[in-house]
Amino acid sequence: MAQADIQLQIPSAAFYIEPVRAFVGNLAKSLGFSRKRVADIQLVLDEVCSNAVHHGSVNATVGVKLCISIDTDALEILVRDTGTRPAGKKSWLTHERLSEIEMNRSPNNESGHGIFIAKSLSDMHEMQTNASGGTDVRVVFRFLKPRDIEI
Amino acid sequence: MAQADIQLQIPSAAFYIEPVRAFVGNLAKSLGFSRKRVADIQLVLDEVCSNAVHHGSVNATVGVKLCISIDTDALEILVRDTGTRPAGKKSWLTHERLSEIEMNRSPNNESGHGIFIAKSLSDMHEMQTNASGGTDVRVVFRFLKPRDIEI
Amino acid sequence: MDSTKLMKLREESGIKIIEIKTDLSSYAASDLRKMLEGLLAEKVEKVVVNLSQVSHINSTAVGALVGVAKRLRQSGGDLKICALADNLTRTFNLIGASSVVEIYESENSALAAF
Amino acid sequence: MDSTKLMKLREESGIKIIEIKTDLSSYAASDLRKMLEGLLAEKVEKVVVNLSQVSHINSTAVGALVGVAKRLRQSGGDLKICALADNLTRTFNLIGASSVVEIYESENSALAAF
Ligand SMILES: Nc1ncnc2c1ncn2[C@@H]1O[C@H](COP(=O)(O)OP(=O)(O)O)[C@@H](O)[C@H]1O
Ligand SMILES: Nc1ncnc2c1ncn2[C@@H]1O[C@H](COP(=O)(O)OP(=O)(O)O)[C@@H](O)[C@H]1O
Fold this sequence. Notes:
The complex is a heterotetramer, with 2 copies of chain A and 2 copies of chain C.
Chain A: E1 3-11, H1 17-30, H2 35-56, E2 63-71, E3 74-80, H3 95-104, H4 114-121, E4 124-129, E5 135-142
Antiparallel strand pairs in A: 1-2, 2-3, 3-5, 4-5
Helix pairs in contact in A: 1-2, 2-4
Chain C: E1 7-12, E2 15-20, H1 26-41, E3 46-50, H2 59-74, E4 78-82, H3 86-95, E5 102-104, H4 107-112
Parallel strand pairs in C: 2-3, 3-4, 4-5
Antiparallel strand pairs in C: 1-2
Helix pairs in contact in C: 1-2
One adenosine-5'-diphosphate binds near residues 92, 113, 114 and 116 of chain B.
């Protein structure tokens, strides 16, 4: 089997991020990631899911979707929210907004560290506006050695 | 919000049962179930998922689906496999087969304890043949006190 | 579940000590923030947050600690944290919060620093 | 990951001791069964399985222990288990396996019982 896929959908509420973190932590550990790396993966996941819940699918009855893929050389996690923008309004996700967020980031600020953390601790971080007008965030964590998945 | 639903789909392989157990354990703990009850819920989940993986969706590329609902008085988990029976063949799930399994159960046997455990430790246990010819197992764990879900 | 049950508040020689017994993702972070704002409202000046039983913290929770530390300093007080697991230290360092909030090895050293 | 790495095998005065450092769901249970069948193939007679670091066990893993205990007894040997957490004891009791496999408080008492 070349790839294994896991789908997970939770209500858009912070309460459900902890179980998701437990799921991914357990999975990453079983895949052989080091303790340190497992903690990094869990933190990135927490930050990306928190953004999906707080800025993306703001209405709790709407879900946040995760697709977790395991292939021979990496664990990949896609987090998809539905967005909240009224029809016609532009997506928040522009180069200008992203460089503004990056420029304004300061240790003194209470917020604005999530995207920075996700970028810093993952091997690949990608954000895209999706079909429903929300945000797709894709993060990749590579295995040190390629693995044969027979699981 | 009257009810919250979580959907989870894993490849049909034993490897993925552990992360699911971590997810549900964390969720049950956050919902206020006691340590003992959390362990029971995790064991039932393990038994039901193991059956889905080993007897139900035997082909690993086919998935096992979980639907987890939280309402005011209970946590409910539905585990759905796709089955493997050739078209036209009868479902395994008959009263005769179930009483045979029950009658044959003995502490001396290496297997045949899963359904018994799931029945014993849940507040409600129900098995049904589903549309794809596989099995739906529904287990319910009631809260001691009804809860207002604002999560 | 109300995660504030997992945040124990006590006082020692005029310093409020919060001992946190839950991981600090967004859900618990908002309870932590509420508890800290409660202390600000009561005009508390000195706070120590003991993180020895925390194995995960996210940027929202770090932000709550940074924000309250800054506000307490404006009135001559402070918030100090202690007993961080390695990965919590890494998260504080990554954000840069280690240079904003005072971090101590143990609760006693945090108390002594007031 | 290969969970057999989390099952340490050693020997003390002719008794094989397996120390398990992973929870025993179906995935690890099949590795445990393989390890135990390896011992049977080597004509090992006495086995102690130390479960002190196991916080979860399912019926497949209990079944593997019961099955191997019964086969060892046929050749005059035995498999004894020790150091069960409360919920493991509950699972053994529920299945009825506590009356089939000998369970001891500690590794030493299990070894001494041979
Ligand atoms: N999924 C998302 N949907 C909409 N906006 C988002 C999303 N993720 C991030 N953002 C925007 O990017 C900003 C910076 O995010 P981040 O770096 O995680 O910090 P914070 O969440 O603390 O503000 C957010 O304040 C928000 O405006
Ligand atoms: N999801 C399922 N799909 C098909 N058959 C099942 C399923 N769950 C249980 N069974 C049947 O019921 C029997 C008893 O199951 P169980 O009590 O869990 O014991 P065990 O799995 O150890 O055999 C199984 O051997 C199998 O024949």
